[in-house]
Amino acid sequence: NPGSSATLAHALVAALATGPAEVVARVRATFDSGATKPLEWRLRQLAALRLMLTEQTEAFSQALQADLGKSPKEAYRGEIGFALNELDHTVENLAQWLAPRPATVPEFFRPAEAKVVREPLGVVLVIAPWNYPLQLALVPLIGALAAGNTAVLKPSELTPATSAAIARLLPRYLDREAVAVVEGGVPETTALLEQRFDHIFYTGNGVVGRIVMTAAARHLTPVTLELGGKSPAVVEPGVDLAATAQRIVRGKFGNAGQICVAPDYVLAIGGTAAELEPHLAAAVQGLYGDDPAAHPAYGRIVNERHHDRLTALLGDGRIVTGGGHDRASRYLAPTVLADVSPDAPVMQAEIFGPVLPIVPVPDLDAAIAFINDRDKPLALYAFTESEQTKQRLTAETSSGALAFGLPVSHLAMPDLPFGGVGQSGMGRYHGEYSIDTFSHTKAVLDKPIV
Ligand code: NAD
What we know:
Helix content is 43%, strand content 18%. It has helices at residues 2-16, 20-32, 39-55, 57-68, 72-98, 135-146, 160-173, 186-193, 206-218, 241-253, 272-288, 304-311, 364-372, 387-396, 431-437, and strands at residues 101-103, 113-120, 123-127, 150-154, 179-181, 199-203, 223-226, 232-235, 265-269, 318-321, 325-326, 331-332, 335-338, 355-361, 379-383, 401-404, 425-426, 439-446. The strands form 4 sheets. A 7-stranded mixed sheet has the order 10-13-14-9-8-15-16, with helices on both faces. Strands 5-4-3-6-7-17 form a 6-stranded mixed sheet, sandwiched between helices. The model has no long low-confidence stretch (mean pLDDT 96). The site of nicotinamide-adenine-dinucleotide (NAD) has 28 residues, from helix 8 and helix 9. Residues 127-131, 136, 154, 156-158, 185-186, 189-190, 203-205, 208, 211, 226-228, 260, 350, 352, 378, 420, 425 line the site of nicotinamide-adenine-dinucleotide.
């Protein structure tokens, strides 16, 4: 009908005429109006996001398939369903998280009342990466909106189908005056970063993390940096190696290894290095069959540049299983490398792909020293039956998270904080930690004047 095409034309003209300054000014005006502060507004946005995820499951799933070869099952598990879990947990607990908390007033100051109040920060910028391009855009957004902020969302240009789907669908469901999606790569992000935000939430690599933090410093804007790094999986002698190998393989090769908390390498203590080899090979075969290229659950590398980077690492050790690759389809087989030297290129930077080196170390002391000699990882995993080993790893190493017996899954528990430390990032989110991140925690004191 003519009415809706006129509206469309108007929206198009408005979109073309809007630069980053206008976009930020628009959502800032909404924040300043106070519209986003009531609990009802926040819950309405979360309900709208929920509706979007359930009504548009197919559209997002197709986009994720096009960008990363993600199967519908994997797209649901790691992206759509993951965001819905976070959303439901937030809706269920939000009123309680936002309730003012009474604080004790020392005797000397009485009579008086003191409390702690969480208030929204203002305009939040979310910059998302490509490996979980929907989840890592929406989960921070859920926190930002639940905390009463307005937001600008910048999806990754490396996953263009998902980025386009977000840009097309989000404004159909959410308050358009409060949430804006800006698509683009380096120039667009650089232009956005010139604007003043009240918080910047960046997920990606440490090089860009530094660029983001430098830009934020100009406006004294606080940042959350969700970065990566090499997350080790320590394996101690005496554990069930078949079960251990299955857990490691599941954590490592999902999304073709492009998971920020995937085990980056195995730190095999004593004889486990050699003993693990057949178990890892069997676990890969058990999960993806004889031809992972034909298995629907096995993903693809995001682009040719990353494919080239990863295939260049295949000579850094003896191939136990895998090694096959095809540039045209961006396929790289789940690959395990043995006899890997700590000085090999594969052990220098985060692998972020389906290549798993096994690095032997003589004992637990050597494993702890190996970990502590390097950047603090985003996650540390260990397979051990020893309580003493668990205690030593907890006390003597530092990492974003520490998990015994199960890699990756801690990030799906919304009561656990998710974030890095040192070079793996700063700040944390998920569940109530997101509310902390996107709020100012204000002290309120009230003493009678007379
Ligand atoms: P990416 O290249 O998609 O970059 C992330 C974002 O930064 C994108 O939106 C991109 O447009 C923007 N960007 C890129 N270059 C820029 C520049 N010069 N200036 C301003 N903005 C720029 O993602 P990536 O960094 O390749 O992602 C992989 C890394 O992210 C890995 O290290 C991985 O471990 C990490 N990661 C961490 C988490 C986490 O939750 N901690 C999650 C996923 C990925």
